[in-house]
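Dig into these lines:

——
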Amino acid sequence: KVFILLKRNTEDLNERLAARAEAMLEAGLIEEVAHLKRLGIEKNPNAANAIGYRETLAYLRGAIKESDLLATIVKNTKALVKKQKTWFRSQLPQPNRCLELS
């Protein structure tokens, strides 16, 4: 078996994460989550913890300011990426059987 790893430098990845979070907000994330909140999304912990949803629900409850929403989404997404990288490293075979691509 050969495993191919796609790797981005940290600066590029952070820029992409921030751009994605901005795009989510511009596309109506707050309105979407407000609608889902009315439908009872908070009763489904998996859905309520999705990227951007958890932070937006906190904003809608008044726990964070709107001005902090974007930064909070980006910060929590970076933490998830770090956790995923750690998990993948523990799952991969010996390094000599992996091909790393940038």
User: Anything to note?
Assistant: The helical segments are 10-26, 29-38, 45-48, 53-60, 66-91. Strands lie at 3-6, 98-101.
